[in-house]
């Protein structure tokens, strides 16, 4: 079956539920049809290729993992819709000359929503509104008060009220998705029958992130997998959950980590003809899992970890784009080994990585010097001269 938009989903699910082994084929692998181009000829060409075993089935999670993926994608979609109404609130506030977004980091945070709801309730005094500041807000009460001297016209207040109502609606719908996601994770944990030990202490202190799920994602994943994926640098609880939803909780569909990274289009795609490498660039891909791993690579590049040191060294040598891909591949291998083989990841630290890299470079220099008949000697430190 050729994967065309979403039209294949109903028939695929019906056939799969009745025990058929359905091959979902990427159109890129079967688009070169010789001669005519019709729906009938496409079907005949697919049947002929499949008869000779020339088609590969695309990966699609089964059972409750597919259900979990659908809930998470729906939640992401709702958050995207809600984000557009945050912009509408900012526009209405700017039209009223209320510069709230300049004094608070997020107008949908504790301070921002308190002030917006108070404005819509009829409060106009900047001094009173500024006292609604949350204790964690960096801006002072005086700074916030100066930003709230606005022109509260009726039409702008109406636009602000509607934008806030729509934002609240999408947040409410996203919370309904959280309930479904938590229920599916519990059912999967019971079905897998794993008995994990006590949840290890988190190595990173994290405050509650914006748009976080309403339950403890880290504990739920640990109960499902028996491993704490957040020990891998760059993988927070939410990113780890989305990776599990996109790739599954056993990764048995890929025989090795190399197969897994190739599927993610994070490994070189060698094109060789006549013994000559024509290209080794990674393939373009719309994989959500690959996008998540690239985002994790960018995040880990700012940390004082072994992966962070690896990213910074490659970034200086071959550029940030290739460094992101290489670091994302490393994180993908760690994720695969943790989920498939139960590996426990312990970060050796940036200093360990730099020391090992320095030793490797020195060994290479010694080997090259010996090949030319020379020997390297370390430079003795110059004796310090006392100055009278």
* Unreliable stretches covering 5 or more consecutive residues: none
Distance between the termini: 88 Å
Relative strand content: under 5%
Count the beta strands: 2
What strand line-up does the widest sheet have?
1-2
Radius of gyration: 28 Å
Q: Oligomeric form of this entry?
A: single chain
Structure annotation, total helices = 14
Mean pLDDT equals 87
Q: How can the largest sheet be summarized?
A: 2 strands, antiparallel
Quick take:
55% of the residues lie in helices and 2% in strands. It is an all-alpha fold.
List descriptors:
two-stranded antiparallel ribbon; 2 strands; 2% strand; mainly alpha; 388 residues; 14 helices
Descriptive notes:
This protein is mostly helical. Helices cover 55% and strands 2% of the residues. It has 14 helices and 2 strands; from the N terminus they run H-H-H-H-H-H-H-H-H-H-E-E-H-H-H-H. It has helices spanning 9-17, 39-51, 63-95, 110-120, 126-130, 141-147, 154-192, 217-225, 237-247, 257-263, 288-300, 306-318, 320-341, 350-371, and strands at 271-273, 276-279. The protein has a two-stranded antiparallel ribbon with strand order 1-2. A hairpin with a 2-residue loop joins strand 1 (271-273) and strand 2 (276-279). The radius of gyration is 28 Å and the shape is globular. It starts with 8 loop residues before the first helix and ends in a 17-residue tail after the last helix. 25% of the residues are buried.
């Amino acid at each position: 079956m050729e994967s065309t938009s979403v039209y294949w989903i109903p028939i695929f699910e019906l056939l799969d539920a009745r025990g058929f082994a359905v091959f979902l084929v990427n159109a890129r692998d079967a688009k070169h049809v010789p001669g005519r181009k019709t729906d009938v000829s496409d079907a005949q060409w697919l049947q002929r290729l499949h008869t000779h075993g020339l088609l590969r089935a695309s990966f699609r999670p089964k059972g409750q993992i597919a259900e979990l993926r659908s809930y998470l994608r729906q939640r992401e979609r709702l958050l995207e819709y809600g984000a557009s109404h945050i912009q509408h609130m900012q526009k209405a506030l700017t039209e009223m000359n209320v510069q709230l977004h300049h004094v608070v980091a997020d107008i949908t945070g504790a301070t921002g929503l308190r002030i917006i709801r108070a404005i819509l309730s009829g409060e106009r005094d900047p001094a009173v509104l500024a006292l609604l500041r949350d204790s964690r807000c960096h801006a002072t009460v005086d700074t916030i008060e100066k930003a709230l001297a606005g022109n509260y016209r009726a039409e702008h207040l109406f636009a602000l009220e509607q934008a806030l109502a729509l934002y609240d609606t999408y947040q409410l719908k996203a919370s309904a998705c959280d309930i479904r996601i938590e229920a599916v994770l519990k059912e999967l944990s019971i079905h897998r029958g794993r008995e994990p030990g006590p949840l290890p202490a988190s190595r990173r202190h994290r405050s509650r992130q914006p748009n976080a799920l309403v339950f403890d994602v880290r504990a739920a994943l640990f109960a499902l997998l028996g491993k704490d994926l957040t020990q891998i640098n760059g993988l927070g609880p939410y990113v780890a959950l989305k990776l599990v939803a996109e790739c599954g909780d056993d990764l048995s569909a890929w025989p090795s980590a190399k197969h897994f990274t190739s599927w993610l289009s994070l490994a070189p795609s060698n094109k060789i003809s006549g013994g000559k490498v024509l290209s080794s660039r990674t393939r373009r891909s719309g994989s959500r899992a690959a996008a998540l791993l690239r985002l994790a690579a960018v995040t880990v590049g700012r940390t004082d970890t072994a992966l962070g040191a690896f990213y910074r060294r490659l970034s200086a040598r071959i550029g940030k784009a290739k460094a992101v891909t290489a670091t994302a591949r490393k994180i993908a291998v760690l994720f695969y080994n943790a989920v498939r083989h139960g590996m426990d990841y312990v970060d050796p630290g940036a200093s360990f990585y730099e020391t090992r890299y320095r030793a490797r470079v020195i060994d290479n220099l010694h080997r090259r010097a010996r090949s030319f008949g020379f020997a390297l000697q370390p430079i003795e430190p110059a004796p310090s001269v006392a100055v009278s």
